[in-house]
Amino acid sequence: MLKQIKELFYLGGIEFMVMLTILLIITTAWLIYHFVLAHYSKKVSSEKVIRRLGYGKIMGLFTLVFGICGSMLGLYSMFLQSEIITESGIKPEPELVFDGISVSMIVTIYGLLIYSFSLLFCFIAIKAINKKQLSS
């Protein structure tokens, strides 16, 4: 399983996958820091914390957009290669085109997973903070 994930990481394009991983770490650290700050501090207002957790959702959305940009660049590169192959007189095989499309989607899927994680974390954190505010 780990070998397959590592293979997908390299297939997706190391530059984009590393950048998305860095954005995942930043987003996760941001969300955890502000959740812990709100959960254990009595001085912080819940409105301020919810707004800052919203910034975490925006960071997650940025990772999705970055993943889509990586996918678009991958598709563009694939179409350029197909054009070069066609100009040399060779007809591109449909299997190669479909493989190129599937490989270009890896970055988008990774960005989507990170965005989904940030949405889920924000939802759970906001519910926990609101529950704590009601019980206080």
Determine the structural class based on helices, strands and strand pairing.
mainly alpha
Please count the beta strands (DSSP E, at least 2 residues each): 0
Poorly predicted regions: none
* CA-based gyration radius: 20 Å
- Please report the distance between the alpha carbons of the first and last residues: 45 Å
The helix-strand sequence is HHHH
Fraction in beta strands:
under 5%
* Main sheet summary: none
Shape: elongated
Domain count, please report it.
1
Q: What share of the residues lie within helices?
A: over 70%
Explain how this protein is built.
With 136 residues, this protein is an all-alpha fold. The protein has one domain. Helices cover 89% and strands 0% of the residues. The chain has four helices and no strands. It has helices at 2-11, 14-40, 46-87, 94-135. The longest helix is centred in the middle third of the chain and has 42 residues, at 46-87. It is elongated.
What does the secondary structure layout of this molecule look like, with pairings?
Elements: H1 2-11, H2 14-40, H3 46-87, H4 94-135
Helix pairs in contact: 2-3, 2-4, 3-4
Care to give the gist of this entry?
With 136 residues, the protein is an all-alpha fold. The chain is built from four helices and no strands. Helix 2 (14-40) packs antiparallel against helix 3, helix 2 runs parallel beside helix 4 (94-135) and helix 3 (46-87) packs antiparallel against helix 4.
